[in-house]
Amino acid sequence: MKKWMAILLGMLVSVCWAAPGQVTEAGRSAVGAARSYGAAVRSCDMGWALDYMYPPIKKAYAERYSSRTGDEATRVRITMGLIKETPEQARARMDAALKALRDHYVNMGRQLAASGVKIESFSVREPVAEYVVTPPTTVAKTVQRDQRGEMQVDQIQNGVERSRLVVLPITLVVSTPGTRGEGPRRVERRSHIFAIRDERVNGPVSRAGLTKRETKINQWYFVDANTDVNLLRTFFPNLPQNIILPDGGERVLR
Question: What is the largest CA-CA distance in the chain?
Answer without folding.
Answer: 82
